[in-house]
């Protein structure tokens, strides 16, 4: 089996993160624009830098667990590290058209 490129791995990571739904909003974290960056080190550590719609959200631990579980069987990932960041602040401008339609935002 040939090794996959970083691009292919990141595409799989994004596909899997699209299955992680924000429990309060019912839309996935990718389309909500909550995922700011994905970095995969050569030794298999996947750092997902993301935010939440509001600072102090009580779902921080739950979302971190959902992200970790979603990426758990990606072959190249040995460990998932979810980092919550608050700069730049999240706004509805980060949402995709799909997310805005699903939430009735125009």
TrEMBL record:
InterPro entries: Fe-S_Maturation_MIP18 (IPR052339), FSCA_dom_sf (IPR034904), MIP18-like (IPR002744). Pfam families: FeS_assembly_P (PF01883). Residues 10-83 form the MIP18 family-like domain. SUPFAM superfamilies: Fe-S cluster assembly (FSCA) domain-like. PANTHER family: FE-S PROTEIN MATURATION AUXILIARY FACTOR YITW. This is MIP18 family-like domain-containing protein. It comes from Ligilactobacillus ruminis ATCC 25644. The lineage of its organism: Bacteria, Bacillati, Bacillota, Bacilli, Lactobacillales.
């Amino acid at each position: 089996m040939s090794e996959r490129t970083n691009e292919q791995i990141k595409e799989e990571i994004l596909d899997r993160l699209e299955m992680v739904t924000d429990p309060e909003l019912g839309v996935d974290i990718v389309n909500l624009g909550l995922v700011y960056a994905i970095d995969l080190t050569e030794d298999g550590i996947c750092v997902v830098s993301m935010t939440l719609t509001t600072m102090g959200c009580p779902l921080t631990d739950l979302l971190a667990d959902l992200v970790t579980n979603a990426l758990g069987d990606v072959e190249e990932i040995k460990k998932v590290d979810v980092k919550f960041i608050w700069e730049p602040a999240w706004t509805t401008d980060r949402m995709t058209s799909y997310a805005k339609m699903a939430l009735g935002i125009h």
